[in-house]
């Protein structure tokens, strides 16, 4: 694979300096400590936690406290928060700062899931400019010297775009960087990301880095996004599902390396086994829990590789590491990388759909008093963005 010369050698997010301008996007049920450690073993960049609900964190629920834990090898420590109530978001940020649990905090304004947007949360929230401004300003204030960033979408749909106004508000509030997933909530993960929106945001935001997100499936895609949009770095989500070595490819691409090795079936099998081992550690030695969690990754890992249906089915129902070892031992570890069949889109895509929103949400850019209680309910749900 040939990679063009690197357009961006590094990335500065507040006081955090990254050798390569790459960020792992938070993904619910995916970017736990185990997966972050695995990605880090292959490459470089900033590896963000699963999205954590600010209310659950303030209430110190068992699940939220587990999710904010980092392995000692993880540095810098990055946590993404989701919230709709300014006071609760501020309290959650302050908890992370006061207890020294993070080196970087990101706020999620990109979730397109109906159960969140119908309460005014996620990608629907920046439509209410006053609420968005208050959340970001209070979070930045609570973060102090800690870099606080935001991740958002273009808007609700093509008729209700929010990203340029939200970007300017966030820049004025003092965020350390702004990431844009170049789709609207109505597009979900379908079609193609609109990279021209990333270019427009980059032109509008002049004092902090702008990061692009959407349709980064390879190192070449990342280089092309930076060249076409002028963005300062890339955020990678679905492209690394079953491909944690993508971070090695991205690092090599940004360093200008021209030849990037691709994994044999043996490398894939060994990586899957390492992932399962790290999950056992993450779940405090609970091998059963780890095996149940790894099952959802099987199809992603072996996409495009000549692995029989019975073997795939066995791995997708694996119950122990020994059983996994027995099944992986049946593979031909010498089989080479299959090429295009193993590349391209992966993970959920969905189809365009009309966003679910609170009644009367689009009638005004300001939050009505009657809507505040309804919006608060969105914080009870968790999802990605």
What is the gist of this entry?
The protein is of the alpha/beta class and 385 residues long. The protein has helices spanning 33-42, 54-58, 62-67, 86-98, 114-117, 129-143, 163-173, 195-204, 219-229, 246-254, 265-282, 287-294, 298-301, 309-315, 321-328, 372-376; strands spanning 11-13, 16-18, 22-24, 46-53, 78-82, 104-109, 148-153, 155-157, 160-161, 178-181, 210-213, 233-236.
User: Sheet with the most strands?
Assistant: 8 strands, parallel, barrel
Strand content: 5-15%
What is the level 1 CATH name of the largest domain?
A: Alpha Beta
| Euclidean distance between termini CA atoms | 31 Å
CATH topology of the largest domain: TIM Barrel
Commentary on this structure:
This protein is an alpha/beta fold and 385 residues long. It folds into 2 domains: 11-260 and 349-380, TIM Barrel; 265-336. It contains 16 helices and 12 strands. The strands form 3 sheets. An 8-stranded parallel barrel has the order 3-4-5-6-7-10-11-12, surrounded by 7 helices. The protein has a two-stranded antiparallel ribbon with strand order 1-2. A two-stranded antiparallel ribbon has the order 8-9. α9 packs across α10.
What order do the helices and strands come in, and which of them pair?
Elements: E1 11-13, E2 16-18, E3 22-24, H1 33-42, E4 46-53, H2 54-58, H3 62-67, E5 78-82, H4 86-98, E6 104-109, H5 114-117, H6 129-143, E7 148-153, E8 155-157, E9 160-161, H7 163-173, E10 178-181, H8 195-204, E11 210-213, H9 219-229, E12 233-236, H10 246-254, H11 265-282, H12 287-294, H13 298-301, H14 309-315, H15 321-328, H16 372-376
Parallel strand pairs: 3-4, 3-12, 4-5, 5-6, 6-7, 7-10, 10-11, 11-12
Antiparallel strand pairs: 1-2, 8-9
Helix pairs in contact: 1-10, 1-11, 4-6, 6-7, 9-10, 11-12, 11-15
């Amino acid at each position: 694979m040939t990679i063009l010369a690197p357009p961006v050698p590094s990335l500065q997010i507040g006081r955090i300096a990254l050798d390569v301008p790459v960020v792992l996007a938070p993904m619910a049920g995916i970017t736990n400590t185990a997966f972050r450690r695995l990605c880090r073993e292959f490459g470089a960049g900033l590896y963000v936690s699963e999205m954590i609900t600010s209310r659950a964190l303030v209430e110190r629920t068992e699940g939220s406290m587990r999710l904010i834990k980092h392995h000692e090898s993880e540095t810098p420590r990055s946590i993404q928060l989701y919230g709709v109530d300014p006071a609760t978001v501020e309290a959650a940020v302050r908890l992370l700062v006061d207890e020294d649990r993070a080196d970087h905090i990101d706020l999620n304004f990109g979730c397109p899931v109906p159960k969140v947007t119908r309460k005014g949360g996620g990608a629907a929230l920046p439509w209410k400019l006053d609420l968005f401004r208050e959340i970001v300003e209070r979070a930045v204030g609570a973060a102090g010297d800690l870099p606080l960033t935001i991740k958002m979408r273009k808007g609700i749909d093509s008729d209700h775009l929010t990203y340029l106004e939200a970007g300017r508000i966030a820049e004025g509030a003092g965020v350390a960087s702004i990431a844009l997933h170049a789709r609207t909530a109505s597009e979900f993960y379908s079609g193609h990301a609109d990279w021209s929106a990333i270019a427009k945001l980059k032109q509008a935001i002049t004092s902090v880095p702008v990061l692009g997100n959407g349709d980064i499936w390879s190192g070449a895609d990342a280089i092309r996004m930076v060249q076409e949009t002028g963005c300062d770095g890339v955020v990678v989500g679905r492209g690394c599902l079953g491909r944690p070595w993508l971070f090695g490819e991205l690092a090599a691409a940004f360093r200008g390396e021209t030849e990037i090795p691709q994994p044999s079936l043996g490398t894939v099998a060994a990586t899957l086994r390492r992932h399962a081992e790290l999950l056992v550690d993450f779940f405090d030695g609970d091998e059963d829990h780890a095996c149940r969690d790894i099952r959802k990754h099987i199809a992603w890992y072996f996409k495009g590789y000549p692995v029989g249906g019975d073997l795939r089915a066995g791995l997708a129902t694996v119950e122990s590491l020994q059983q996994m070892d027995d099944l992986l031992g049946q593979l031909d570890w010498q089989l080479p990388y299959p090429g295009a069949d193993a590349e391209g889109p992966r993970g959920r895509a969905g189809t365009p759909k009309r966003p679910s929103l609170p009644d009367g949400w689009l009638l005004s850019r300001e939050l009505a008093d009657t809507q505040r209680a309804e919006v608060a309910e969105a914080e009870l749900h968790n999802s990605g963005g």
